[in-house]
Design goal:
267 residues, Conserved hypothetical protein from pyrococcus furiosus pfu- 392566-001, ParB domain, two-stranded parallel ribbon
Amino acid sequence: MSEINRAIGARPTLEWVAVEAIDVDQNYQRPLKNALVEKILRRFSWSKFGAVVLSRKGDGRFMVVEGQHRWKAAQLHPDVTEVPAIVVDHVDLKEEAESFLAINRDRMAVTSVEQYWAGLTAGDDDAIAVSKVLQSAGCDVVPENGHYRPNLTNSITAIRRCLQNYGHGATRRALLIIRAAWPDEPKALRGTLITALARIIRANDKTIAEPDMTAALRPQSIAKLTAHAEAFRKLSGGSAETALAKALVEIYNKGKRTNTIMIGEAR
């Protein structure tokens, strides 16, 4: 075992602290995100709140070290006057900032895949919507990041955005085209490709023919298609999604005199 730190310091205390006795030091705290505060406030529940980390000040007040968004939501809630807290005695501002950095730097971020599976178990509406569109196209989410197989995806955020911007139908059709074009490709269901196709399908709902798009894409490798899109991006700029949409439209329209399609507007 590697050497461990034995100078662990004094144990913190567990206390209920009045929300009005808590302050935030902007010298090291991140700017408050009002949208996140509102989200916590709307869904406020003690079972999901946890404990904030505070630094005790000499005047009976406390400084937030970790959890300022939860504290702010609690402060705004009409039925909350105190929050559960882990209270640490810091020597000075520098030590507070060091604690803030260590807590946030060493924390393992929850991936979008982990959030999805937890959300599905919890009955989260967004996770259920993503699951429904994937299942309807014979697809699913990878069990965990790195476990790539055909017809599985880790592009949760992109699919959620597609559903919001282009709808269930366009997103499902995009997934079906990708499945049919690259049935054996483990990483075919990538977010940019799903989004670009859904955008095109939404803009050309009555014109685009899925068999024609599938046939046009099948000879293309993912790498070749990505390189094609990157060439567009270098020439005209724009997002990766727009460049890929242009590449897809060019491939689809090649040799056609009628029933051509356009990229449509990003949403």
